[in-house]
Amino acid sequence: MTGSGPSPPDSETTLAVENLSTHFFTRAGVVKAVEGLSLTVAKGEVLGLVGESGSGKTVTGFSILGLVDPPGRIVAGRILFKGEDLVGAAAERLRSLRGARIAMIFQDPAMTLNPVLRIDTQMIETITAHESVSTEAARERCREALAMVGIASPDERLTAYPHQFSGGMRQRVTIAIAMLHKPDLIVADEPTTALDVTIQAQILYEVQKLCRMTGTSMIWISHDLSVVAGLADRIAVMYAGRIVECGTVDDVLDRPRHPYTRGLIDSVPSRNRQRARLRQISGMLPSLIDLAPGCAFRDRCPRADAACGAMPELAERVPGHRVRCFHPLTDEAGA
Amino acid sequence: MGVFLIRRVLQSVLVLFLMSLVVFVGVYAIGNPIAVLIDPRAPQEAIDQAIHNLGLDRPLYEQYFFFLGNALAGHLGNSFVFNEPALHVIMQRFPATLELTLSAMVIASVFGLPLGLIAGYWSERPVSRVIMTGSILGFSLPSFWVGLMLIIVFSIELGYLPATGRGATVSVLGVATSLLTLDGLRHILLPAINLALFPMALIIRLTRAGVREHLQLDYVKFARAKGLTNRRILFTHVLKNIMIPVVTVMGLLFGLIIAFAVVTESVFAWPGMGKLIIDSITLLDRPVIVAYLLLTVGLFILINLVVDILYSVLDPRVRLSEDSR
Amino acid sequence: MSARTAGGPQATAPAAGAETPFRRFAADFAASAVAVTALVTFVAILLIALFGPLLTPQNPYDLAQLSLWDSGLPPGSVGTDGQVYLLGTDDQGRDMVSAIVYGLRISLGVAISSGVIALVVGTTAGIVAGYFGGRIDSVIMRIVDMQLAFPAVLVALILLAVLGRGVDKIIFALVAVQWAYYARTVRSSAVVERRKEYIAAARCLSLGAARIVFRHLLPNCLAPLIVLATIEVASAVALEATLSFLGVGLPVTEPSLGLLISNGYQYMLSGRYWLSFYPGVALLITIVSINLVGDQLRDVLNPRLER
C-alpha cells in the first residue's frame, strides 16, 4: 500500500488525503492526473506541493476543493478535512465549506475576478454566501480584509473594477477574499507565478505573516522550488500524478533522496556556479494516458535499472522523510 | 467616449449619404424618374408642372440636390394609389408595425433568454438538445409557412383566435395602439408569435453559446471556490457577462424584424408598413417604394449606431478605458 | 498495482487499416443518427427533383392532361379516370403530388444555382481580399459589411421591385443576398491561412499569385465554406419561397413551392387546406433536412467545439 495508512483523525491534522486518484475520461483515453496520492497538512502548517506542469499538482488542489470538472472525476481515495470525508459529500455541504473553511487562490488574477462586476460586489457576495450579515457590515469586513493584505485607501478600491488594478493588486484582493472567513485551509495554486519578482516577494511575505497570525494551514502549489523554500514547513514533490518525495523543507532541500528532486534542485539557476552549464533533467514528462508500469521517472533517471520496472512504494527510510524510489540518494549527496 | 461618439455619428451620416446617392442613381439615372415620381395617368399639363417642380428638367447633379433637399424636408412625392404624400401614407401605418415588432421582441426575449440559459447550463442533458433542435426549426422554417400553420391550427381548427387583421385600437398620446384592448391582444397574439420565432431562436443560440463559453472560464471556477450558489453564479456572474453581446444583438434583431414584419403582415393581413410595401410593389406605387426604402435604410443606420453606443456603455472595460484617455 | 487496471474505461487502440481524414470525417458525421437521416432525406429529395417528370403521374402544366371535373378534390380521392389523387387536386384539376414535385424542381433549381453562383462570386471576392490584404481587403470588406447590415428579405425585395419578375432576376437577387456571407467566411479563413508556412514556401517558389490562391490557399479554406454552403442553400430555398409567396418572386409560369402555397392560401379559410399544407410540408422537409446536415457538418468540422 502506498504511504502512510489512514491516520487517526486528530485535532492537529487539518487535512489528510488518502490514496486519492483523479482521472480524466477523454476521447483520447483516460488521463490519470492524480494516482494514489496521500498527504497530510497539520494545523498552521504550510505544505509546499512542487512539480513540473502536468505533474498533477493543480488537479490535486481542485480535487481537495471538489472543483474537478467533467470529463474528470475523483475515482478513488478519501479527503479527510478535519475528520470529515469530502469525497462523495453532498454538493451543498461542499459549497458551504468552500470559501468559508477551505479557500483557494488561483494563479492568474486577471482571469479569476469577474471583469464586469465591481470588487466590492465580488467580496461582499463571498461573505453573504455563508453568513447573513447586512451589506454594510459585510463592506466593513471587506475594508478590513483589504487593509490586512496591505492595500491602502480601500474605499476607492472597493468601487473599482478588476481591470483597473495591477496584477499584484488583484492577487492581493484574491488573497483578501480567501481570508474573509478565516478558513482552516487555503490551497494556493501558483499565486505568484504570474507576477513580477519584486511583487512576488511582497506577496509571499504578506501571506506568511497572515498564516502565522491566524493559524491557517496552507498548501502552496508551485513549480518553483525557491519560492517554496522560504515559505513552507514541509515539501511534497510530485511527478506524473504521484508524490515521489515528502518531508520537512530542510530534509527535502538539503538532503534530497529522490533523483527527480535532486534534478529539480540542481536546475535552479541560482544554485549553479557562475559560468557553469545549467543543469537540466533530460527528457520530458511522460504522457499520462499510456503510462508504462513501473516508476514513471525511469526514462529520465540516471540511476534507473531493471528493478525500476515495478512501481516503488512511498517508503519512510528516515523518520518524517518518505521517498518513492528503489535507488534513493544517500546522505552523501550522490548522483 | 466623446471622440468615439462623434466618429460613429459621422460614419453613419456618411453611410446615409451614400445610400441616398444609391437610391438617387437607381431612380433618377437608371430608372425613369418621370415614371417613378409622377402619376402617368395625370393630364399632360399636370405632368409638365410636376416635372418642373421636381426639377427633372435640370442637369443631373442639380437634381440630386433637389432630391436631397426634398427628402430631408419629407417631400418624397405623392402616392399614386392614395394620392397623398408618400411619407404620410407610410407614417400612418408605422404605429401598427411598431406595435407588432415590439411585441415580437418582448416575446422573443422573455422566452428566449431563460431557454438559452437552461440550454447552456444543462448543455449535456436532453433538455438542451430539445431546445436547440427547436431553435433550428425557429430560424430555418420560412416564417410565412409557420404563420399559415398557426392560422390553420388556432383559427381554423380550434377557433380560438382571429385569423387576420388588427384589433380594436385605443389612442394613447395621439398614437393608436391595439395593445390595450382585449380584442387587440387577441388579434396581435398570433402574428407576434410568428414574428418572434426567428429572433427567439437566435437569442437562444447566442445565450447558450455564451453560457457554455463562460462556464469554462476561470472566474466561474473561482466563484465556485468562494462557495457561491450555482444560481448566483449563473444569474449574476455569467449573465452579466453575456448580456453585453446579447443586448447588442437584440438591438440589431429589432431592426431585422422590422423588415421581416413584411412577411408576417402579409400573412396576417396586418395593416402595417410591411403590407404597404408589398402592395405598393404589386401596384407599382413607386413613390411609396422610394420613400419606404429611404426610411428603412435610415432607420437601420440609426439602430446600428445606437447599438454601437450601447455596447460601449455596457462594457465597463471599454467605457472606462475611453474615459481615462 | 498497474496503471492500466486502475478504474475507468480504457482507451481502445486505433483500428488497424487506413484512417484517412475522409473516413474519420464520415465516422464523425455518422455519429449523429439525426444527421444521417437528414442526409438520406435530402438525397431522396434531390433524386425526386431530378427525376421528377419521370416519376409523377402527370405533368401538371400540360393543360391537356388536366380534367376540370377533378378540381378541388381532397387528398385520397379517386378521379374520373380512376387515378388516385394522393394529395388532392387544386382548383384547376392539377394533381398536387405532381405539382409539388415540379415545384420542388424549381425551388431547388433556383436555390442551388443561386447558391453556386454566390459561392463562386463570394469566394473569389473573399479570397482576393484575404490574400492580398491592405486596401483591397478594406474596400471589399467594407462593401460586405454594409450589405450584411441589411436583412436579406429587404435587399431582395428592393432589387425585385426595381428589376421586376423573372427567373433570372430572382437568381440575381438571391446571389446578391448571399455572396457577402461567402466572402466574409472565406476571407476569415484566408487571412489565417495566409500567414502559414506553406504559403510562404509557395511564394518562395515564385508561383504566380493565382496559382497560390486557387491551388494552395483555397483547399484549406474549404471546411467552413462547405458548412456555409449547406446553410445558404437552405435559406435560399426559404427566401425564394417567401418572395414567391409574397407575389414578387417567380412568375406564375414557373410555380415554385412558395407560389403553390401562395395560391392555396386563399382557399385555406374555406377548408381546402391541402393546397397550402402539403407544399408547405415538402418545403419544410427540404429546408430542415439541409439545415440538420449543415449543423452536423459544422460540429464535425469545427475543432473549437471539440468536447
Explain what this protein looks like in three dimensions.
The complex is a heterotrimer of chains A (335), B (325) and C (307). Chain A has helices at residues 57-65, 91-97, 109-112, 119-128, 135-148, 154-158, 167-179, 197-214, 225-229, 249-254, 259-266, and strands at residues 13-26, 29-42, 46-50, 72-81, 84-85, 102-105, 185-189, 217-222, 234-239, 242-248, 315-318, 321-323. By secondary structure, chain A is of the alpha/beta class. In chain A, the strands form two sheets. Chain A has an eight-stranded mixed β-sheet, with helices on both faces. A four-stranded antiparallel β-sheet of chain A has the order 2-1-4-5, with helices on one face. In chain A, helix 8 (197-214) links the parallel strand 7 (185-189) and strand 8. The two termini of chain A are 28 Å apart. Residues 1-9 of chain A have low confidence and may be disordered. By secondary structure, chain B is mainly α. Helices cover 78% and strands 2% of the residues of chain B. Chain B has 13 helices and two strands, in the order H-H-H-H-H-H-H-E-E-H-H-H-H-H-H. In chain B, strand 1 and strand 2 (175-177) form a beta hairpin. The relative contact order of chain B is 0.13. The mean pLDDT of chain B is 80. By secondary structure, chain C is mainly α. Chain C is 68% helix and 1% strand. The radius of gyration of chain C is 24 Å and the shape is elongated. Chain C starts with 20 loop residues before the first helix and ends in a 6-residue tail after the last helix.
